[in-house]
Amino acid sequence: MKKYSFIILFIVVAAAGLFWGIGNFKSNVAAVNDSAEEVKIGMNLELTGTFEYYGISVANGALLAFEEINQAGGFNGIKIVPLKVDNVSDPVRSAFLANILAQEGVVSVIGPSISDDFIQTIPAAMRYKIPAVSATATADEITVDRSGNAYDYVFRINFNSSSQADQMVKFALNNLGAKNAVVVRKLNNIYSNGLAQTFMKVFKENGGNIVDLINYTSYETNFEPYLRRIQRENFDIIYLPGYDSEAANFIKQARELGITQPILGGEAYDTPELFEIAGASVLNDVYYTTDFLRSNPDPKVQNFIAAYKEKYGVEPFMDSARGYDSAYFIVDAMKRAGSDDPQAIRDAMASTENFTGVTGTFSMDEEHNPIKTIYIIGLENGIPTQRIVAESTQ
Fold first, then answer.
1. pLDDT band for position 220 (50/70/90)?
2. Whole-angstrom distance between the N-terminal and C-terminal Cα of the chain?
3. pLDDT at position 386 over 50
4. 135, 136, 186, 217: which is deepest, by most CB within 10 A?
5. What is the DSSP string of 216-253?
6. What is the pTM for the complete model shown?
7. How far is Cα 142 from Cα 368, in angstroms, rounded to an integer?
8. What's the fold here for domain 161-290+375-392?
9. Residue 243: CB partners within 8 Å, gap ≥ 6?
10. According to the CATH classification, is domain 33-159+298-358 in 3.30.420.360?
11. Neighbouring-strand partners of residue 144
């Protein structure tokens, strides 16, 4: 009897949580929907929780873009209303909110930011036929199913895991002369594992040797046991596709132990936290992939940076730039379609050619990934001093 009582209590608590979420969401929507004529665009992002930096950054960039778009007349004179919700860095809540946003009548959705969260929202995008746009989630399986077919209503404006890992392998082999690599990945994480798997596969196919594969778990901050193990290996580089705080602690501790070999990673390194936690003095021979260059003299980029700093008081990093581009990408598709109908928007997104944003110019391929340039940034004392133009993502 106690078992059944516990189950009933759990169901009641869960239902109460969902209804609270709906009620809270409804009240937030009511606060922003003050126009009879408007177009709603959803933002399902990690505004609190483990990955809040990424979600907040995307949100800030997108909100700045929507503000500019509305000041310029919106969509054919109609106001764009962003509906921003917090998935608390949780895949289950991400899926729940994706359904709620669809029922609220959004014509497209930005986010979530993290691959694990975004993947859980795909069923809602397909069920309601509302295009979902990834600004930052990189997992290959975000835009294609297990058979390799593109999801009709899922798009991405950032490069995927395979593309950036492939380019980093070429950089390691050709620019660093690496022959032996240690790979360090985060267990049960789609982002980290996807990058690691591609890197190892391509590295070995091109004559490289993976001398060790190390797995760590979530929330680890002490990497010394792994680093002691790495010190016993004969290696040229370390490939660590982790998130910013993990990479920062790993790099700091590696340098303190006298490990001087280059450390390579993905675009998740491009955040202020990497520099704040690790400290500039240890960020030498550290390389990561990105598509946003703050040093780009292009007026479009510099105007974005200036506007962002004026609005938020800080300099934008990559995720804010991608959030900004994702908002403009959706509205661009609406304008080319001449409609705010989700199906028409979806069709326009699929046929995108030469869209120019602050993270570069791209066209959309058949798998709904952008064909765009990947850059590899090298750090010296925490300062980006090297910019290597890798090949296009296709």
1. confident
2. 60
3. yes
4. 135
5. E-TT----HHHHHHHHTS--SEEE----HHHHHHHHHH
6. 0.88
7. 10
8. Rossmann fold (3.40.50)
9. 51, 186, 191, 192, 268
10. no
11. 150
